[in-house]
Every structure is written in C-alpha cells, then in structure tokens.
Design brief:
Pfam families: FAD_binding_3. This is FAD-dependent monooxygenase. InterPro entries: FAD-bd, FAD/NAD-bd_sf, Geranylgeranyl_reductase. A hairpin with a 2-residue loop joins strand 15 and strand 16. The model has no long low-confidence stretch (mean pLDDT 93). The chain folds into three domains: 226 residues, FAD/NAD(P)-binding domain, CATH 3.50.50; 86 residues, 2-Layer Sandwich (D-Amino Acid Oxidase, Chain A, domain 2), CATH 3.30.9; 82 residues, no CATH class. It has 453 residues and is an alpha/beta fold. It starts with a strand and ends in a 12-residue tail after the last helix. The longest helix has 29 residues. It has a seven-stranded mixed β-sheet, sandwiched between helices. The chain has a six-stranded mixed β-sheet with strand order 8-3-2-12-21-20. A four-stranded mixed β-sheet has the order 1-11-10-9.
Amino acid sequence: MRSESADVVVVGSRCAGAAAAIEFARHGRRVIALDSARFPSDTLSTHLLWPTGVAELETLGALPRVLKAGAPQLRTALAGGSGHTVRTDFAAVPGIGYAMCVRRIALDAALVDTARESGAQLREGALVTELVADAGRITGVRYRDRSGATAEVLAPLVVGADGRRSTVARLVGADIPYRSADSGRACYFAYWADAYPAWRTTAAQWRAGELLGTAFPCDDGLVLCLIQPPVARAERGQSAAARLYREFIAEIPELAARLRDCTQIGRVRTAADLTSYFRRSAGPGWALPGDAGHFKDPVTAQGIRDALRYGRLLAAAAAPVLDDPRALDRALRDWELERERDCLPVYQWTNRLARGEPMTALETELYRAAASDPELAARVLEVMTRVRPPGRMLAPGTAVALAARAAWRGRTTPITVADTLFREARDTVRDRHELWTARRRGLPPLPATVAVD
C-alpha cells in the first residue's frame, strides 16, 4: 500500500474543505485534499450567498474566479407576504454590497482551482474508507484512488469536510448530534431560463399560507426557484415532485408572475427529512467544518457562508500548532466553541422559520411596518446577512406594539394575539436559556467511541 505524509489531510474539497486547504497552504503547510467527485461537479444545494458569504470568497482569493461564472450581483432584497412587499438594499460588509447565487458546479470548481493555486494538492476520485489512529489520536486516512488501489496519507490533522453524511464523523463516532431539530419544511427547487432582465439584480422571497418560495437569479442566465412547503404536503418520487412543484408555484401569485414567461430547465430536485444539528466537531487529530459538523435548514441560506468561514478559521487556528498535539487540541476546541457561539443564535432563529406554518399576525404587521420604514426593513435584512444578531432585530416592546396593531385592525382576535405573544415569549425564553447554558457549560463530552486504536 502506497503511504505518504502531509501536514494536514482534508477529506472533501467543496466549500469548507477548499477554504481550509487554501488557508493551510497559505500558512506554508503541505495539504493533501481528497474528494470522491471529479470537478467540475454539481451537488444538491440552493447556493445563495449573502454579502458576508461573498466577503468570505474575497478573503480566500476565490472571488475573481467566482465572478467569471457570470452570476449577477444581487443588490436588492425583496420579501413579500400577506399583501405587503418589503424592498431594501444590501448593506455593505467589508466593501461587498451584494449577494450572489452561483451554481455549485461553478462555485466549487472556482474554490478547487484557488486551492490548487495556493499550493494545496487536490486528488479527485479518491474515496476515504478508513482512518488511521495511534494511541487514541487520528493520524491519517486510507482511501481508494481512481484505479481502485488503496493508499494512505498520514498527517497530524484530518479535516472531515465531507458533508452531512460525513464518513469522518461516522468513523470517529461523532455522527450523532448533541443538538438537533427536525425541519417542518421540505425543499423543491429547479432552474428557469430567466425572461426578465429587470429582475436580475433582485433576490426575492414570498410567503403565501404555509408556503415559502424564492427566485434568485444565478449564472448562465438562469433563476433558481425554491419552494419550501410544510413536510405534511411533501411527497416522494420524481413525478410527484414535478407536479407538486408547479402546484406550489401557482399558490404563490407573485412568484407565479415572476416566472410567467420563464422556461424550466432540467428536473425538479428535492430534499426532505431535513434535520438541523450540531455535532461534536473537534477531537484528537480531527475536526469537522461545514455540514459535517453543523447544519441549518436552507430557509435562511447560511450554510455556504459558515462552511467557508469556519473552514478558513479552522486552518488559521490549527496551522501554527500542527506540530504540537496539546496546542493543536486547544486550538481545535477554541475553534469549535467560536463556531457554536456564532452559529447557535442563527440556528435557533432558522428553526423558527423552518416550522412550515403560515405567517402570524405579528409577522404580517412586521411586513406592513417594514414596507414603509426603510430602517426597520434594513434591520430585518441585517439579521439574515449576519450583520445583526436575531435577538437585536426588534427594539424592546416592538412585538407588543405589532400585536396591538394587528388586534386594532381586526386582522385577528385578542385571544389569538395573546397566544402568539405567549408563544414568542416562550420561544425567546427557551432560546436564551439554551444560549446561556451553552456558554456556561461549554461543549458536551466527546463520544467514548472517538478514541480509536
């Protein structure tokens, strides 16, 4: 069996893995990245990047390549629901004042090319099958190459950036989440040849009843239309997906109008039974950035930003201490804690939006108010783009004021308003308690099975 050594081996070369490989290589480390795919290669993803995600691409040096894919710069955000439409521009984050929706076949290829240019060795068609361990530390991987031969890479650190069904997470015993929540929504999405140039700089989302639908212009003149129905209305099978997708679009009049003269390109893709989670993501000689360690429902489009950011920050923290196991373990644990503290509030907020329920009276009043209040509209968008924490979206007492307006307009009964306020208060207390507990207790213990020999 062929065996070689590196400073770090990265399993998976998409967003998190490529970001880690780029940053390790910039620190002068010898990086070998393995991926079972051959690039350019597509993957199941709704791939919207808010400005903070675009800024990560710029930090990694990949943005010029990504821009060449031709996806338009989305400078306006639109949200519609209950007869109200909110429009606002994206606030600039380190010089980036636009979002982008780049298909993964182009985005991942740009990241892979940037990693290679940075000095990382990327091997395609390489399927990791085993981990190598010594005295409880992970010390490398074994994989099958394109010819079917088995090879081995030994390294002080194995980075498992191999997605929700992570082989590395399973092999170290960390695949069972310590925090999880089932989504109340399923996903149906497809691409359309866009017939409306005037819409090419607008990222749009509409809600109608229990449905949520989006239209995000992307590369090659296409627009990505995503529908998220409640799971109770989802069905399996391609023929059912194609039928339901069209029916759901018809139930959102504004989205149907947006696509009226557009032509669907390709089949409808689906994702069901989604579960958001945190897994233990760092142990002796291993780490799990990206979806391998943490996943959120796509309703808030946070996954790519977090994968890029925490792949990069993992490498920045670990690269200087790869030769000192104790210092490396501390750096990995600090990195994992930082990700939890940054991502947990957004995870909680995402879980609320993923319930698959109609807009509440409070949400309707929020849309109504934001439609005529640019400052409020900007605050709401800043939560989505990670500029403002979810807990600081509304000023104290705003929810009560919105509920009072809803009751005064006769849109709902006082009992319903009281129930909604009670639920909001209960959820807020629960979320704050979870945040307080997470900060006070830190991370849970590693699973006993992690110490493999």
